[in-house]
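Cont'd.
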Amino acid sequence: MTSRRIVSNEKTLLEKDDNNDRTPTASEKSNITPAVPAAVIMKLLGFTAAMVGGPIGMYFLTLNTVFRGNSTWAGATAAFTANLVLIAYVIVAMKEDQSDQLAAGESAKKNR
Amino acid sequence: MAESETAPKFAPFFGMGGIAFAMIFGCAGAAYGTAKAGIGIAGVGTFRPDLIMKSLIPVVMAGIIAVYSLVIAVLIASAITPDKKYSLFNGFLHLAAGLSVGLTGLAAGYTIGIVGDTGVRAYMQQSRIFVGMVLILIFGEVLGLYGLIVGLILNTSTGEV
């Protein structure tokens, strides 16, 4: 996809040179937004951080405060936290696809 | 670390072995799962980029396998100190805990890798397979969780010398 985009950009530049700036391609803004929206990248980074820091953080957080040195329960809490991150990821992934469909539907309505 | 009949010099060797086995085998399984599922996601992503977010679930699950290993390794490591007596029984117990978590993690990671790779490729063509794929992945994941439960239970029966 990206290679195609570059080819079309070159064509518009050539057209710009031949004609003046009033060609429809020159007045149109080219789509320079990245293929993956920033919100998705932030979500993925958030889940990465939650996976790296969450469980082991919960282990050390609850070890001496909640469970008073009982490392078994603290370990179980850490494993539970890891599974919570997984469940949250599954829910977000399902919503992500639905929001994509909704956004596509809205843009289709706007284009009408 | 004083030496006695029940707490010989070499007892910590087995505990340390438990830590190492938990991390090495568990992370080997997680690495295989991530790599194999990643191959499938790369194959799916070129045709259906909108499915990437859902297809990443096996990778997250493989990450959890590594977390299980990490938890049991930290747990065992916190029980071994150079200034306390460490019995041979505790050493074998920690070895068993580490091996059970590590080797079940290897099994679970292997399962997640194969199911993830084939599952996301099938999901590309038939969207109904998603629920089944996630269910199979959870059943694979639970294998590692069983190992962790056994490891945690083993860890509760460590006693003072």
